[in-house]
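User: Hey, my collaborator sent me this sequence without any context and asked if I could get a structure. I don't really work with proteins. Can you help?
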Amino acid sequence: MAGHVFSSLAPAAFGARPAGKRLERVRRSPHFRDGAFRNPVPTRRGSPGALGKMMRAQRAASGLRRPAGAIPLVTASAADFAKAPVTGLRASWLGHATVFVEIDGVRVLFDPVWSTRCSPSAAFGPARLHAVPVRFADLPDPDVVVVSHDHYDHLDLATIVALARRERVLFVAPLGIGAHLERWGVAQDRITELDWHESAEVAGLTFTATPARHYCNRGARVLGTVLWASWVVAGPRHRVFHSGDSGYFPGFADIGREHGPFDLTMIQAGAYAEAWPEVHLHPEGAVQAHADLGGGLMLPVHWGTFDLAPHAWEEPAERSVAAARALGTGLVVPRPGALFEPALVDGAEVEPWWREVSAAPERWASTAPAERAAVEPVGIPAVSSGSAVPAG
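Assistant: No problem. I've predicted the 3D structure and written it out in structure-token form, which is a compact way to encode the shape of the chain:
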């Protein structure tokens, strides 16, 4: 059995290490110190007593981490995509952190993952709870693909290989990620790599890599030479923000002051746990980050597609709705695949479609969302270690 598991690993899925001029550029970054990229504030991958916290959380969420039925999807047709958005900005959440955004006539695809598993293997690892709403063959060619970091649920070998075959597609990524992309068939002249606070014009839009509080690795060890980022994308009329993965930190307000306001923010609000509070946002922190950013409408992402954390699969949606109501934040929680234009969305009204397939709908049915979940305080846990993410 062990031999079968290891033989199923795709060596190419581990990507490649930055080398040559790419590595020289990594080492020149002001955010690269003592052999590794550093987080904007002191950060640890896990908290004290992480194992015990995880075991308790696993027991509490037993039986709740998968939907009780098929997650309702919306499948957009080629004709749907062919119609230009009335307002110039349209988005479709395709599950997890994958979002297809049409902004001022340019198509941008964030963190594309079409594989069944977010894993280096087709035989094991977290499998999808729902299909991708749009078949890859039916996906309109994006002009630009944006990668936030190199974890398997954000950077997928098979999807990148398929996108690389679409010759007009360009790629934008943080420093070091280009090594993975080149190994998988993306020509170097199609890749733009940026350090935090760097901007580049690509396909008529301005892409800016902004800080995030996370880490990178595609193996058992954090190498330190690959950067993670959140992203600001600005066109002539609209601008959007994608968080990638991040814990809460004051930098969201800095990003908002420098680059906001935003018509749409796409913020990680799922796959959180008490055991790792510094590298993933919980829903209340995600809504606070949106407020810090000066966001107009918030789309919670990174939930409902893969079972990656010990919470009920629909809990991020419920808690995001409650937190947004408490702060007066505009929120959209569409069925995966639905096309929406932020300017046409009533962000105060959210249909709780996820309750249709909740494993325990009685958890949410008795009271209104705003009454059920108190907004947790959002702060930066004190740490005594340095700001590098330690090796795993």
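In plain terms: The longest strand covers residues 262-268. You can pass these tokens on to your collaborator as they are.
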